[in-house]
Amino acid sequence: MEATVAFRRREPPKLVTVITVVHLIEMTVATLLMAFVVLPMIFHFSLLSSQFWQIYGRFYVTGLFGTFFYVAVTLPLSVVLGFFMGWARVSRIRIFSWPASLYVNVFRGLPPLILVIFASLFGTSLVPQPILDRFFAGFRRGDIAVGIAAIAIGMHSSAYQAEIFRAGFQSVPKGQVDAAQALGLRPWQGMRHVVLPQTFRLSLPPLGNEFAVLIKDTSILAGIAGTELVAKSRDLLGILPANGLPIVWIFAVWTVVAFTYFVLTYSVTRGLRLLEQKFHTPGLEAISL
Amino acid sequence: MADWIRFLRERWQYFDAALALALIVGALVYIYDLLVGSRGLDVAYITRNYTLYLHAVLTNVYATTIAFLAGLAIGFSVGWLRTARTASLAKFAGSMRVEKRERQEDASGSESARRLMVVLSLLWFGTKYVIRRIGDGFVEIIRGTPLYVQILFASSYFIIFLPQYASEGILIGIIALAINTGGYQAEIFRAGLQTVHSGQIEAARAIGFSRLKAMRYVVLPQALRLIIPPLTNEYIGLFKASTFLFVLGVQDEISYLAQHEGFAGDVFEIFAIVTVIFLGITVTLSFVVQAFERRFRIPGLGIEQVTLPRGVRIARAGG
Amino acid sequence: MIRVEEIEKHFGALHVLRGITFHVEKGEAIVIIGPSGSGKSTLLRCINLLVEPDSGKIFIDGVHVNHHGIRHEWVRQQVGMVFQSFNLFTHLTAIENVTLGLTRVKSMPRDQAIEKARRLLARVGLAAKENAYPAELSGGQQQRVAIARALAMDPKAMLFDEPTSALDPEYIREVLDVMTALAREGMTMIVVTHEMGFASNAASRILFMDAGKIVEEGSAEQIFHHPKEERTRSFVSKILR
Question: Longest Cα pair distance anywhere in chain B, in angstroms?
């Protein structure tokens, strides 16, 4: 396309502004203060202690990978589920909208912990035996239960995402669907070229927050002995007294864990804002539910 | 033949609804069968023990309420702190430049006094800024870390520094929940106070209200109506989060049962009772909250609140 | 060219169209006027099958189109529509709005489509704005893009559903100019509007609709100055101040 145009596209809003830089500086300062001033003072402990990391390191890395694994598996699942549930919710076909509404209300109304407990107790009974035998023959029952619990967390998140997507769908003015039809576009074409691009752009901002929640919810798996950050850190606490190590180390552990989660959630929300900016078009502002 | 098709097409709505219903009922029956099935529902167990579990869940309500009220205090103070007005760096530099020019024109007046004023205002703004940012940081941390981690942090604190209370699961839980909800409420209060801050105080002062009167008659009433809806939602969210108390072994009944009777066989019934009671309370609360909201909402004015789980309550000031 | 016979439409208990019959010759520009709720928009939407009439027949170029054998998409390519609320696709630029139908419905290759879109945007006076998003355009500009978008499909006839009703007064002129030029060039048009100036200038015939029926039809001179029916007279007197 030649650019003999007198009108220029407006630049997308900058990702890195002065405020962001100031925030980052503040956060670094705060972290350093916490690590090297507060912790040593109150708990007589320094994060630089290599002994600490020698022992905790193992647990931390295993746990972190576990958390990454759960997030990597449940996040895409929750988005797909959430998207289709949201779509079904706005459908006029009741075979789709009613079950979807039930799903959304059930999984939103129940706290994730209850879902996790339910999954761990009854999850394996719900999966048909032939599937278990075929795909998961080698796994222990407990591990399968944890996997199902992870999926349950994903389903909980998907219920909220369904609402986000639903609002996204409903925010696309109906008139544009009429216009698409009037042009001769077939229904699926209208979906693909008119509705979905806008739904996607509109849903991005709230989705970022929802992902952050999902990451935090994976910590619930620690309650049923899943392999993730919080569980592994708790295991460390078990061996501390046994080996005569200062029990104050607990705080260092939890501080590191909290910091990790903070970094994870912060990066996810910021990262999605990047995506937002990449796809930004004037006129499509964030939706309010 | 065509008549048949037309008949179906016209009645499509009813078929649709009937099929949808059938689908849902079928799925539920299938799940029930899988879980309970041949065993049969142990109704006797339910009738015998439901008061036990009712009491257990009511403990949650009790804990939630206390934590919420504590959180109210925390949230209000932190939220209020976060509305401390700090001039932006640019404005400050600007006023500095004005100052400098004035100084050059008017040679009289004590130089050191002026320098003192500059230093003092720097300190004042600086302190306000730091306090505000600490408040922001507190909220960001609470929102950015899982509740579970916060609970574990709290219980570690008790185990080490206050071992005499370490066994009081409910105390630890309430404190952790209070701080948690405090963080989220701080966000609500901040948005509520800021929404009103903008033009209203100036307008009130212009009419002749003193700062205090403006607060009392203009800001507070509006702020109240802005924050009550999201606060009530926060209460429900907190109640749902209070399920973590189970993890802390707060419900003695359940621990007792776990130890003595074991869970074999009746797990589903126990789970069902607890879930049903829990849902019942949640639904009731929702109705109460809706009635509350209707009474307090000002149409067209409100804090846009994204209805996401407690993990991400974003209160944005909206008008 | 377009013939409508005894169209009936109910929305639930509401009897919106009660036996509408009229025809439009090729090259004619007819204007439909009437109070709100008279069914004008519904009638328009029946012609391109956005709304299915309960009974009656619609013929476009001799083809009976509200027949179960005819694909709706085909009908809509014969007849273009311009809406009161423009309905431009918010996520696409002006030129992308125009090329969407060309590339996806008519399967035109991309560069050809862009060429054609550019010509059409120039024709409505918006060549310079081809990369603008709808949110960056004024109401009048948006509506003109919408007209270009509809024209891109080379329709045999154009339907306009109150095209200037949502516009600020300063933008109405530019849209009406485009429509008048279109009528002069011989496009078959059915326009629902309250703009009497346009009706007098460009319409070959005016239809007055009320409560789902065509009450009177005639030339602008007849309808505005010598209305035969009482209802026509009272309506016209209310709008011609």
Answer: 106
ipTM: 0.85
C36-59 pLDDT tens trace: 888 899 999 999 889 888 888 999
User: Are B284 and A136 in contact, with CB atoms under 8 Å apart?
Assistant: no
Report the C-alpha gap between B79 and B172 in whole angstroms: 24
Q: pLDDT of C59-118, one tens digit each?
A: 988 888 887 788 888 899 989 999 999 999 989 999 999 999 899 888 899 999 999 999
List the single residue in C85, C90, C153 with the smallest CB-CB distance to A183: C153
| Among C residues 139-178, those touching chain A with beta carbons less than 8 Å apart | 146, 149-150, 153
d(CA A36, CA A89): 52
Rounded Cα distance, B128 and B41, in Å = 62
Phi-psi region of B208 (alpha: psi -120 to 50; beta: other; left: phi over 0): left
Give the nearest partner residue to A213 out of B159, B283, B308, using CB atoms.
Answer: B308
Nearest to A162 by CA among A213, A89, A269, A73: A89
What is the dihedral angle through the alpha carbons of C138, C140, C141, C147, rounded to the nearest 10 degrees?
Answer: 150
Q: What tokens were used for B208? A: 């002749």
What is the number of other CB atoms lying within 10 angstroms of the CB of residue C39? 26
Q: Give the DSSP H/E element, type plus range, for residue A109.
A: helix A94-109
Please name the member of C91, C100, C136 whose beta carbon is closest to the beta carbon of A198. C91
Query: Which whole-number Å values give the CA distances from C111 to A2, A185, C150, in the listed order?
Result: 11, 20, 19
* Cβ neighbours of C150 in A, within 8 Å: 182-183
DSSP label of B217: I
Residues 6+ apart with CB under 8 A from A260: A64, A229
- Asked if the C-beta of A173 comes within 8 angstroms of chain B's C-beta atoms, the answer is no
- CA proximity to B306, closest of A78, A205, A197, A272: A205
Helix, strand or coil for residue C188?
Answer: strand
Q: What is the Rg, in whole angstroms, of the alpha carbon atoms belonging to chain C?
A: 18
Which residues of B, range 48-107, sit inside 8 Å of A by Cβ?
none
d(CA A83, CA A81): 5
The pair phi, psi for residue A171, each rounded to 5°, is -85, -10
CA of C210, closest CA in chain A: separation in Å? 25
Q: What is the pTM of this model?
A: 0.83
Residues in chain A closer than 8 A to C74 (CB atoms): 184
Q: Which residue's entry shows tokens 């103070």? A: B77
